[in-house]
Structures are given as C-alpha cells and as structure tokens.
Amino acid sequence: MTTSSSDQDPAGGATGSFGGPKPYALTFNVDYPDRALDRLSSALRAFWIIPIAIVLAGVGGYSASWSSSSTDAANTVSGGVGLIIIAPVLMILFRQKYPRWWWDFNVQLMRFQARVGMYMALTTDTYPSTDDEQSVHLEVGYPDVEKDLNRWLPLIKWFLAIPHLIILIFLWIAAVFVVIYVWFVILFTGRYPRGAFDFVVGVNRWSYRVQAYAFLLATDEYPPFSLD
Description:
By secondary structure, the protein is mainly alpha-helical. The chain contains 9 helices and 4 strands. The protein has one domain.
C-alpha cells in the first residue's frame, strides 16, 4: 500500500540524519486505499460505527446525569477516563516525572481514537481494532522529562495552543464537508479522491500534533501550522 506524504516539519530548523527537516515529536500517517472501497459499507458507515463508538466512549470518557422528581435525587452514570492530563501536569511540575503507564495509556487511547476517526472518515473499510495498528500509524516518543520538558510549561500549553485551536475549528468544518463530498464520490466510483484524502489526514495530523503538545505533554516544541 502507498502512504500519505511523510510527516515532517516544513518550518525547517534542525534537520534529520539525511539532511531533511526534523520530524515533529508526533507523526501521523494513514495508508491510502489502493483498491476500490466497499460502497455499501461506506453508505452505511454512520450506522456501522455505532458499536465501536460506544466502546470508545466507554474508554475515552462520557457522563450522563438525570434527576428523579419523586425523590429529588440526582443520578449519574459515567464511564472511562479520557486522556490522563491533570495528574501528569502535577507530576511534571513537582517531580519532573511522567509515569510510563500513564503515558502508554494516553498514547494507546489516541491511537484507538485515530482508528475510529479514520474509519468514520471513510479512509478504510476495515473495522477499527481496539489494539491493532491497522492502516493508521500514530507514533510519538516517550519524553525524558528532566531533559526534554520545562516543568512550568504544562501550566500554559493549553493557552499557547489557542491559535492552533481556532484554526482547527475552521479546518474541521471544512473536513466535514470534504467527507460528505467523498461519501458521494465513493458511492458512484468506489474511490477516495487523493486530494481529499490528503486533506482529511492532514487535518487529523495537525490536530494530533496539537494534542501531543498541549495535552499529552509529549514535547515543548511548538506544533507547526501545517497539514504536511
């Protein structure tokens, strides 16, 4: 299978061992489908995804609450924990430490989210696995906290990421319309237009870089403003 263009920082700066731009701390690529996609699976994707979306919600975190008028008692149902964020912030701040099992959980959850997201975006007919990599490749290196991370920066990374988040709002709106367009194209041709594929993957790549910087706390290097 061919893959989308390599995930490198086009802004320049430090270079890799072969003289090219140094890749960002998080890389994200998706295999481009080299065969016709299943029209029926694509047509009914919004229904096919429901079971795995429920599983993801159970792991990634959700909550619901209601009250009973007869007893005035509040009831709450919650599941999952989402990314572990506050605890690593405190550990980095006070102990300059990021427990490896917290890190592994966060990375595996991001990978699971990515597989579900790419399936919903119609890039593959393969049903998302809870643990296998499949066609979605998200890699991020475990940081040496004492050497690689400023202990105070996690307190403001969310604020520094605001310019990215504003741009991503518009990019995600555009991506939704692109996926709707692709849905019709697949129904008629069975193919995913390469330009649309690169855009959808690029928006996800940009989002995961920002997530790695501001919430996963994988790096202090500011994310590039780029889909590439």
